[in-house]
């Protein structure tokens, strides 16, 4: 069983790498950010509750995301493991997760703050297939994979990005120690080429 947690600041490439590792290892990719954005789009009670926090770059309350993850990892497709992307993000979330399941490995994708601001402010995402692109490497208006119109996420503006990084440093960074103390932390250099990051993660998982 491979119950994996992907840690790292916003813009480190967690979502991109989680999607790639999910495809390579056949494990479901569970992104709390994507689940919350879908809930907002559908106008569900959870979406209505989450929207103001997310637009400001703040964290959605623990009990909301813990409930989402608890339900999701109980599904059949998670029987052989899963990849959690963007959860846990606080110590209470990590403690709640430890109560309901056993995490096999926490993969920490490390990148410096200034590069993160550049990556996030030029980021474009495909709402149809989830592909992430950057204005410096792709200038088209439509997704190169599926053709849907690319969008800029509401929280990918500079002020909100800076707040997300500060929230990360205060609330999520302590989880690195949390998993290190449990002997299951693997840190990967997220500054490398995207394929090399994927290879490094696969090596860590298969070691
Ligand atoms: P990024 O890692 O680029 O910030 P995500 O899509 O993972 O993007 O998260 C976007 C937003 O969704 C966060 O800023 C936060 O408001 C909310 N969110 C996602 N996961 C969690 C979580 N585990 N706890 C609280 N809020 C969350
Ligand atoms: Zn697409």
Q: How would you characterize this protein structure?
A:
This protein has 207 residues and is of the alpha/beta class. It has a domain at 2-27 and 80-111 and 166-206: Rossmann fold. The chain has nine helices and seven strands. The protein has helices at residues 14-25, 32-42, 45-56, 62-73, 91-100, 113-121, 158-172, 174-181, 194-206; strands at 2-7, 29-31, 81-85, 105-110, 123-125, 132-134, 185-189. Strands 2-3-1-4-7 form a five-stranded parallel beta sheet, sandwiched between helices. α4 (62-73) packs parallel to α5 and α6 crosses α7 (158-172). The longest helix is centred in the last third of the chain and has 15 residues, at 158-172. Residues 10-11, 14, 32-33, 36, 53-54, 57-60, 65, 86-87, 89, 93, 155, 164 line the site of adenosine-5'-diphosphate (ADP).
Class derived from helix and strand content: alpha/beta
Low-confidence sequence ranges:
none
User: Main sheet, how many strands, which sense, barrel?
Assistant: 5 strands, parallel
**What is the distance, rounded to the nearest whole angstrom, between the alpha carbons of the first and last residues?**
14 Å
**In CATH terms, what is the architecture of the domain at 2-27 and 80-111 and 166-206?**
3-Layer(aba) Sandwich
The small molecules bound here are: adenosine-5'-diphosphate, zinc ion
> Radius of gyration, rounded?
16 Å
CATH class of the domain at 2-27 and 80-111 and 166-206: Alpha Beta
Quick overview:
The chain is of the alpha/beta class and 207 residues long. The chain is built from nine helices and seven strands. A hairpin with a 6-residue loop joins strand 5 and strand 6.
